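Help wanted!
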Amino acid sequence: MGELMGIINNTKNGNLLKEITENRYIASVPFGGRYRMIDFVLSNMVNSGIKNVGILVLGKYRSLMDHLRSGKEWGLATKRDGLFILPPPYYDGIRKGDLENFHYNFEYLRKSKQKYVVISRSNLVCNINYTHPLKFHKESDADITVLYTDEDLSKEDFSSSTILHLVSDGRITDMEVGPHKPKTNKVSMDTYIMEKNFLMDIIDETLAKGGYDFLMDCVVKNLSRLKVYGYCHQGYVGRIHSVQSYYRHNMALLNPNIWEEIFIKSGPIYTKVKDQAPVKYMENAEVKNSLIANGCVIEGTVENCILFRGVRIHKGARIKDSILMQNCEVQEGAALESVILDKEVLVSKGQRLSGSKEYPMIVQKKTMI
Amino acid sequence: MHKKECIAMILAGGQGSRLGTLTKKLAKPAVPFGGKYRIIDFTLSNCCHSDIDTIGVLTQYKPLVLNSYIGTGAPWDLDRKDGGVTVLPPYVKELGGEWYKGTANAIYQNMDFIDQYDPEYVLILSGDHIYKMDYSLMLEEHKSNQADATISVIQVPWEEASRFGIMHTDEWGRIIAFEEKPEYPKNNLASMGIYVFRWHLLKEYLEADEQDPLSSHDFGKNIIPKMLQGSQKMFAYRFSGYWKDVGTIESYWEANMDLLSDYPELDLYDPDWRIYSVNPTQPPNYISPSAKVHRSLINEGCLIHGEVENSVIFPGVYVGPGSRIVDSVIMPNVKVGANVTIEKAIICEGTLVRSDSLIGYDEIDFLFRGNLPENSGITVIAEGMDIPRWTKIPKGSVINDLSYI
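Answered by r_m:
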């Protein structure tokens, strides 16, 4: 049974990635050649021994359900515990926060037998074992433990993240939610560990006082009253909150060290199996510095690219610095540079498309060019 | 159990001794193939696409890998409430047990399994062929011919015909004569070892064959000739397309190489006829800036820094910088260090080839002595070996332990 359960909160992500999240939300955005964003957090939970995972959903979750199905690929299609999709209550107006979604699914929390819960989100690309922060949580006798990383603020835009202020024993004294000028380099992973009963109590209490947002009303407003500690995760974390960060963290996987850290060193990242044949590199293929998933057939030139499953690059086509999602086809002589093609895009003979690395061009699903 | 119209029995017990080192630790149907699969995946996937949902897999020789690979049958959608896949090893009965004495005897010993489903037809398949075939079309033809038995046949090159069981048919496709491996074949229609039988009739023949002390209890050698003698209605079903019995190291190597032409006869990329297998959890493969890859199949989890040409690379393989792999089959989790050259070789699972080694080089002695290396020059290295730095292994060697080197 274990003592830790997981909740993946998908109710807070809006239309972050423009066209890419128009018809799906961040959890089901394709990433890294064969994954969906949720695979990372879900696999991390499973690899940490978690056997009970609840997934809070809201809005356009059809593609997520299609991806997860019974949870079999993650070993979560079990009789005891397993994978639970937690739907939102019916509500006609504009939602203010995520607390009512938690509250609507209290029955699930009540039935779960684990003492502790880790709450995380789907927009993180990382490989982490939650048993270490859980140990820290118990030892520091905290009410809430917030996971964070030390980041180089000059390298990336953290204006959509939460910045932590810590004192030497790790206690969090202040938090800045989405600051323009962060005052520390300790960036929250939006991942929290606490006791399940504590979670239910604080939600009840906050809702009763008119609060509606977990981070703002349960955590930030109670920093002086509660023992909120920070746990520093040593490792690569990609926070996906914009087209730029999506592009950058995909491309980061072309660094073999990051590729190994994310996929090989700790537990594997599980995803839905598609039974595609190995990648076929044909006679005229020229491939450099690229990540290529099964089912691809490469006849042209590919450089610094991420190709998802089933992509076809025909003879004489040249693609560079681009991300091509499932089943895209680039015909003879076409050229792409700094482009993100959503699923099933067809680029016909001789077409040329280019964006820039800072602002990659995005082509919507099923477009024919 | 619900009644089933047709169930399939897959013969997967053979040792495949001519595959030598490749079948040292596993049965032939479990040998890795095509950068991703095990040989039996083709037959199991065919069943899945042909709507056959009840399958017995007869195992005998080194079944551990094969049994755990098949598991519940989930990768082929065979984890069914009713039917699905059942692994059938030989077992002990009241009067003692015995090994499967031949293909027909293997079915004979499992008549109770088949009878549970009370099928009209039984499809007998082999677990060691590479092909894509819709068995439901064969079954349709069997039914419309009102046949007692239907044997799938394929035209083979004349020079190879004497390796097969050869069928002679009349103009309607009815089989009039059958020759098992004839020295001078009069025909090139070869049996593929795929049969549909009316179960009740087959049962009679199996029971009679069991009483025959001279029989070798084999479909090709005994059951089919006896049915012909008994004037049963037997038809040939003509199959056209890619079909390969990977019985030897050469044919295994060739069948892998067959996949590498730009448009191979066996299409693995048909979305309507996927070949299912147990999928390892691995990331997409990474081709580094220093790598060169041509005419190759490379699976997930591979990290390629060197050069790969005309080769089949299974998942989890590492190829170090400056290394060159040509005309080879590299099985799962093989690690190849830097500046290694591997030519026309089969490297089995988990082997480590340390830097600066040379595998499959032309030894000058061969040229002097004029004798050809074994295996048509294919070098084979067994699984789990650690090949030390600076090792040179001449063309055609079979390396099972380090004392050979």
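OP: Thanks! One thing I noticed: The interface with chain A takes residues 34-36, 74-75, 262, 268-269, 271, 274-277, 279, 281-289, 291, 293-301, 303, 308, 312-313 of chain B (CB under 8 Å).
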